TrEMBL record, chain A:
Subcellular location: Cell inner membrane; Membrane
Name the record gives this protein: Heme exporter protein C
Transmembrane residue ranges: 12-40, 60-80, 92-111, 126-146, 158-181, 201-220
A GO biological-process term: cytochrome complex assembly
InterPro entries listed in its UniProt record: Cyt_c_assembly (IPR002541), Cyt_c_biogenesis_CcmC (IPR003557), Cyt_c_biogenesis_CcsA/CcmC (IPR045062)
GO cellular component, one term: plasma membrane
Cytochrome c assembly protein domain sequence ranges: 4-182
Automatic annotation (TrEMBL), chain B:
Keyword Ion transport: no
NCBIfam families: ccmB (TIGR01190)
Record InterPro entries: Cyt_c_biogenesis_CcmB, Cyt_c_CcmB_bac
Native organism: Paracoccus aurantiacus
Major subcellular site: membrane
Transmembrane segments: 12-37, 43-64, 99-119, 125-150, 157-175, 187-213
Protein name per its UniProtKB record: Heme exporter protein B
GO CC annotation terms, alphabetical: plasma membrane
Localization annotation: Cell inner membrane
Alphabetical UniProt keywords: Cell inner membrane, Cell membrane, Cytochrome c-type biogenesis, Membrane, Transmembrane, Transmembrane helix, Transport
Bilayer topology term: Multi-pass membrane protein
Functional description taken from the UniProt entry: Required for the export of heme to the periplasm for the biogenesis of c-type cytochromes.
Length: 241, 218
């Protein structure tokens, strides 16, 4: 019993169909409960109520980066082992990642206005997120532009590999280029740096919720892609007869 | 490889359009900026290094789709792919031809356009040096973008969407080196980083671009 069995679309469809309702329910419960809990936390002594934006901002930012990493892994699996489900999962994840990046940028702007006094600052973190968004846009556009599905999967896979290298370099180049006002690590577990438990636990809950939300969406979208592929195959067979 | 390089150079110079076009675009861009920002000398002097770098980058972008598209259409790309030299070397030769025809003229003209933008004379050396180190990376990354989009009918806009984010690190370090030079500071640190990015590009991108061409020729 290996994980590669689920590279078979039929097995993948069976498993994903079975777990999808549970994952979706978990995503709904964790996200809603975490956000409600987050809203009910006491205001921060310096930032006031604006600290509550964190419960949207941090999970979205975390997912924006991790979805790109997931696409990188899926692209590598496709390029090395040629499993179609993997390529389709990368395709399905890209728009979700782009939306997460937008959520992180917009909530960050709404948070920055009252605390930093500006909607936007050319801070390394903000800048590298903007660059990450541009990479998502290019990746999605390339998928849309190439007609042959296998070529599209290959080309976007290569773009994802090269893009990962350059997104990482951009991150460090931006740190060289400008001094930041965004704080460093927010999720440090070192004593003294770690955030108060009042905020920490609802944040963990929303992070779990956003992860499950991503899992739900990517499973639904991958299933849709597989069904689209099947429909196309059936239509092609019909046309030949 | 040399033959391929010479052939591309001959095509670029004799077919017209490609050679002077980027240079003309660069000149127009540098002439338009003062209309947008106002003719204030201090403002222009402070933004000149960045404008010159962005201008060079955009002018480079103009001629990118020519790298592979014409050869793909008339079938010579298939011949190049089946020829004894590896496709990776062909990519390097074609990127070098692109650099010689669009990058090098920009580097020669940049100090001249710097005068238009009131750039301090002290920055000229740094500007030329940083462009000399950085523009080969622009040509190679552009060749990668051109390889990805060579099979598409309307790849031009998509090409710039794919390539411009890849240009970010080169632009940051190149403009930073020129800016430090203009301010009279030591610019060797950003130049070293710029050289590192160019070397990384030379080492990695030919393989990625060649893989993309193979997929598009399938």
């Amino acid at each position: 019993m290996s994980i590669w069995e689920y590279a078979n679309p039929v097995k993948f469809m069976r498993l994903s169909g079975a777990i999808l309702p549970w994952v979706a329910a978990g995503a709904a419960i964790c996200t809603v409960a975490g956000l409600v809990w987050g809203v009910l936390t006491p205001p921060d002594y310096r930032q006031g109520a604006s600290v509550k934006i964190m419960f949207l901002h941090v999970p979205a930012a975390m997912m924006a980066i991790n979805i790109w990493l997931m696409m990188l892994v899926a692209s590598l699996i496709w390029l090395i082992r040629r499993h179609h489900v993997s390529a389709l999962a990368a395709k399905a994840a890209a728009p979700i990642g782009a939306v997460m990046t937008v959520i992180a940028l917009v909530t960050g702007a709404a948070w920055g206005q009252p605390t930093w006094g500006t909607w936007w600052e050319w801070d390394p973190r903000l800048t590298s997120f903007l660059v990450l968004f541009l990479f998502y846009i290019g990746y999605i556009a390339l998928w849309e532009a190439v007609e042959d599905p296998d070529s599209a999967a290959d080309l976007t896979g290569i773009l994802c590999l090269v893009g990962s290298v350059f997104a990482l370099i951009s991150r460090y180049a931006a740190m060289f280029w400008s001094q930041g006002i965004h704080q460093g690590s927010s999720l440090s577990v070192a004593p003294g740096e770690r955030m108060s438990a009042v905020y920490r636990y609802p944040l963990y809950l929303t992070m779990l919720g956003f992860f499950l939300l991503f899992l739900t969406l990517v499973l639904i979208r991958t299933r849709t892609e597989i069904r689209l592929r099947r429909t196309a195959a059936l239509q092609a067979r019909e046309a030949r007869q | 490889m040399i033959a391929l390089l010479l052939r591309d150079l001959r095509l670029a110079t004799r077919a017209g359009g490609g050679f002077g076009l980027g240079l003309g675009f660069f000149l127009i861009l540098c002439a338009l900026i003062p209309f947008g920002t106002g003719p204030d000398t201090d403002v222009l002097a402070s933004i000149a290094p960045g404008i010159l770098w962005v201008g060079a980058l955009l002018a480079c972008l103009l001629s990118l789709d020519r790298i592979f598209a014409l050869d793909f259409e008339d079938g010579s790309l298939d011949l190049i792919a089946t020829s004894p030299i590896p496709l990776e070397c062909a990519v390097i030769a074609k990127a070098a031809a692109h650099w010689l025809t669009s990058g090098l003229p920009l580097i020669v003209a940049a100090p001249l356009f710097g005068v238009l933008l009131q750039m301090p004379a002290a920055a000229n050396g740094w500007l030329v040096l940083s462009l000399l180190i950085g523009t080969p990376a622009l040509s190679l990354l552009g060749a990668f973008g051109a390889a990805l989009t060579v099979g598409l009918r309307r790849g031009g806009l998509l090409l710039s969407l794919l390539v411009l984010p890849l240009y970010v690190p080169t632009l940051i370090f190149g403009a930073e080196a020129t800016r430090r030079g203009a301010a009279g500071m030591d610019a060797s640190t950003p130049l070293v980083f710029l050289a590192a990015i160019t070397l990384l590009t030379v080492a990695l991108i030919p393989f990625a671009a060649a893989a993309a061409i193979r997929i598009n020729l399938r």
